[in-house]
Specification:
By secondary structure, the protein is mainly α. The protein is built from six helices and no strands. Helix 2 packs across helix 3, helix 3 packs across helix 4 and helix 4 runs antiparallel to helix 5.
């Protein structure tokens, strides 16, 4: 394994968690404002939806950072991200003067979705709880040996 394959998955997980963990924390500490925003966006059951968003961003974000069940965490974050892209950054439904920033946010979400799919496909990498657990797991020995 070359140095890039050894270290870059960790750096990638840190960069992605850098987005989700603070976002979840911000929603938690600004809960009432976030609920108000969710309500204004037309989400059903805004308090419940905000709690779900906080849980996904914090729990899955921290799991991804640690490399614990990273494929599942990345899959959950990918689903959350693509739903947010189409649900909140649907620039094509907005007047032209509001489309610019929403298109940028939509495009960023699609790019983040793509990065998360890499984690789903290839796992967390060497410096992760998943890798340590895999390395520590007993190997089966074929019968008769």
């Amino acid at each position: 394994m070359d140095a890039l394959q050894k270290y870059l998955p960790l750096l990638g997980r840190i960069c992605i968690a850098w987005l989700f963990v603070p976002a979840g924390w911000g929603k938690l500490v600004g809960f009432s404002g976030t609920v108000g925003y969710a309500a204004s966006a037309g989400l059903p059951f805004p308090p419940v939806m905000v709690v779900i968003a906080i849980a996904i961003e914090l729990v899955a974000g921290l799991a991804l950072l640690a490399g614990y069940q990273a494929r599942w965490a990345a899959a959950l974050l990918a689903l959350f991200t693509i739903v947010a892209a189409f649900g909140f950054h649907n620039y094509w439904t907005m007047p032209p003067e509001k489309q610019g920033m929403q298109k940028i946010n939509f495009d960023k979400n699609v790019a983040i979705f793509g990065g998360l799919l890499f984690v789903v496909a290839f796992g967390a990498g060497r410096f992760s709880i998943d890798e340590r657990r895999h390395a520590a797991a007993p190997r089966s020995v074929p019968a008769g040996r």
